[in-house]
Fold these 2 entries.
Entry 1:
Amino acid sequence: MHKQNSDPDRQSVMSEMNDRTREVFRRVVEGYLETGEPVGSRTLTRTMSQKVSAATIRNVMQDLEYLGLLNAPHTSAGRMPTHLGLRMFVDGLLEVGDLDDADRAAIDGTLASNERDVTTLLDRVGSALSGATHGASLVLAPKHEAPIKHIEFVSLGPDRALVVLVFEDGHVENRVFAPPPGQTPSSMREAANFLNALAQGKTMSELRRVMADEIVKHRQDLDSLASALVESGIAVWAHDGEPNERLIVRGRANLLDGGAEEADLERIRTLFDDLERKRDIAEFLELTDEGEGVRIFIGSENKLFSLSGSSLVVSPYMNADRKIIGAVGVIGPTRLNYGRIVPIVDYTAQLIGRMLSGQR
């Protein structure tokens, strides 16, 4: 279920820790995840499995700080995990619990209606996931991958055009985009004819794979205006148009509440600004392209977003053919309750896969 991101160096550091050091490290991290506050040596003397002096614990903490696993945010003796420390904890010491009955019921409740619209279903799932985790949920909706029947370009003005995509299953998508300057009715017809000759029977993914080679081979046959229109028109689907068309975000308020520090609030606003303007949301799916299982990205590992102070717990979901078609995740502060969030995200991904495969 949980796909580890560990490497040999981290594994060797963990294996070289003695039992006392490992326990001090684990209790500091667990205390921080629970309270959000640094954990002091006196607190640990009351929770350690064996009686250990505060001085001994402070020495162990200093060793862990030297290794880059803990730091002291203030001059007090309390320590909290670094992002590297959280990574080590998640990979080597995290105990993932079973899905709580209340959480299962909340997610299962999204199946209560017979809603057939996929976007509405996924929106409901995202809201339930956000409510259960008290974080922000992200759901990447699947692309429509039926074979293409017809593509057409329609001029709406000097700097606006409409690209119409008709699928063989009757589904139609329309996108407005800015064409390259100087387009004419003739170049638009030429571009559409070129694409239709290639597109018959292909899905969008298959069409994009052959586009680059075909444009190179036929560039002399296509006038430059038509060639530029082909490239920009197909990019409307390659980059999925407006970001909210495929990336469903729910629970933003969960990250803005709770008495967060002003600096934290600013980082959260930065995150959502980043989400709202990001066009290439395919990166979200690429985070999960190494196979099944929940993956955890902490701080700067979270390459999709510019917000370094966040964690992303994400899992792909699959169709009936076991092909990854989308992803679902939870984003929040680095002190997420990973042991609880991981099974919720895992279960939600499996549920979405079953819903989209018609297996209620």
Entry 2:
Amino acid sequence: MRSGIAILTIVAFASVPLWLRDPYLMNALITTGIFIIGAMSLNLLLGFTGQLSLGHIAFFGIGAYVSALTSLGFDVGLPFGFRIVHVPWPPIVGFVLAIVVAGLCGYLVGLLSFRVRGAYFVIVTISFAEVVRLVALNWVELTQGPLALTNIPSITIGLPGLGDLTLRTKLQNYYLVLAVAVVTYVLISRLVHSHFGRAMRGLMENETLAVSVGIDVTRTLTLAAVISAGIAGAAGSLYAHYIRIIDPEVFAFINTVTMVIMVITGGKGSLAGPVVGGMIFGLLPVFLRPIMAPEAQWIAYGGVLIVILFVLPRGIVPSLALRFRKPKSRAETLAPVAFSERDAKEHA
């Protein structure tokens, strides 16, 4: 049943360019899709490990800058008269490096910050994002600072026997973002339903019990941070090559808040939650812009957010699933207990 719904959803999204001819709305769908990928990566931490990262946009921005600089090339000076000269590489290489470098940064942040959690972890992630933003703003020789990196080349994909395909049009970028979003969704789905995913959920629900059966807290959370950061880096790379201009404003705190809103309203801990929340709050400003003044748009945006959280406090997807779910039998009610005992034996 769920696989059928997923397939129908993919087909529906794939059919959008066949009937949507408005380039403005197509652009909004592409950028919304990119931020949905970022929201899915945040949901892996917030929804399945319970760790709130308010600096998640740092990995998004790192991916954007790494991919852009890889494809543009650079020449920067170092202390003692050394210089690093990098000639431009194909954008697809930049996409891969964006995932790798963002993942390594996620490893560094996770290794240092998962020894403390709660409010301390939130502070660490916010501080990291601010440090990265200041580096991008002030290292002018590398990043051009507030002048921005411009003329970033579009992603080019090699097709066997057909040569290279440069994804310049909105139609091509739409399908590229859709493909990456589907791969991300499948990857996260397989991950959270694996042995590692059960360990993540165990830490979120009862850390003391999880530790008692042998789950390594720091290793599990750090690996989750690496995967989450890598996915965010991929989203940042797509953003850089689609917009083709990047400046330090990509690290703006409002972008992290947007991702958090997408996750919370859609339903944290659910696979489809960030997609549903992302579509609502990614496209809502687009539909409000022609009919409201900027101040009224923010009021309406906040009003919709409050109504959703008041009516559906668990988020849209979990709340609706709970309302339409059939009553459980006694055997089904006891099933989670048996499942937990099995997981404990596996880890012991």
